[in-house]
Amino acid sequence: SVPLGYFGGIGAASRNGILFKGGNFLNAITHINAIAFDKTGTLTTGSFEVISVAHEGITQEQLLYFISSVEQKSNHPIAQAIVHYAKKQGIEISNENSIHELSGLGIEAEINEKKILVGNARLMKKYQINLPQEIQNCTSTIVLCAVNEKYVGHLLLSDTLKNDACKAIKNIRKLGISDIRLLSGDKKEIVNNFASQLGIDKAFGDLLPEDKVHYLEQMTTEPNKSVAFVGDGMNDAPVLALSDVGIAMGGLGSDAAIETADVVIQTDQPSKVATAISIGHATKRIIM
Ligand code: ADP
Ligand code: MG
């Protein structure tokens, strides 16, 4: 049976906007000695902004029409930013298409009998689309578009760190947890850039959702590691389930993540991860 003190701990957490799915996780979280963070929507706001548009062989309006018509069917943070931008530009978005979303890559779709691809360089590589040289080494998030297997342009987007993202990492270090890692499906260069702003030295980009699962599998089997994964849930449910303590950011997080997680942070503040650990320790002191 669960010691009574845990109820107090769950109450204290809940007053801080932290939902523990059970008293056992208040105990488990005190044993965590490594934390892996997702990037987009977890440590960054996930509210992207389109910063530039490049088109080739079609007009800018046509490019935005194809991309936004496809993205309006997705609820990825990148998709929402693009649809918002296209609407602001007065683009008539089509609703007549069906899409197939490839997680960690982008989307394939058909519009007016044209085959449309919208996504990252990995998606374009998968379909052997030739890309202009200058695209290879850009350091912002890029969404490329191909129509009938031909590159027709791209958008560059920027994302920013959440206000308390740096504090989140600092407070975790203060609790004596030094193994902090950043995992992301975004490009390596972008992930490294955010990691250095955050003071995280172990950063891994270009990870497909299944790569994240393998990574977490390995990490949890490292000797004497007890691992928490913190994610916003876009494609993160399997990793949340694998970690010793799965923590979902509930502010923007998906239902699947909130369902799978052991701990849900109901505000949009990653610094609450350290708060949750502290409450675990305080509860233990009362019980012991
Ligand atoms: P993260 O691991 O940073 O949370 P995701 O796994 O959600 O990122 O996505 C990884 C990458 O896949 C994105 O950076 C983007 O390049 C691409 N991607 C995923 N979904 C979409 C989409 N709907 N439109 C365009 N690109 C997408
Ligand atoms: Mg994410």
TrEMBL record:
GO terms for molecular function: ATP binding; ATP hydrolysis activity; cadmium ion transmembrane transporter activity; metal ion binding; P-type zinc transporter activity. It comes from Coprobacter secundus subsp. similis. It is found in: Cell membrane; Membrane. The keyword Lipid metabolism does not apply. One of its GO terms (cellular component) is plasma membrane. Belongs to the cation transport ATPase (P-type) (TC 3.A.3) family. Type IB subfamily. Its main location: membrane. Signal peptide: none annotated. Keywords: ATP-binding, Cell membrane, Membrane, Metal-binding, Nucleotide-binding, Translocase, Transmembrane, Transmembrane helix. This is P-type Zn(2+) transporter.
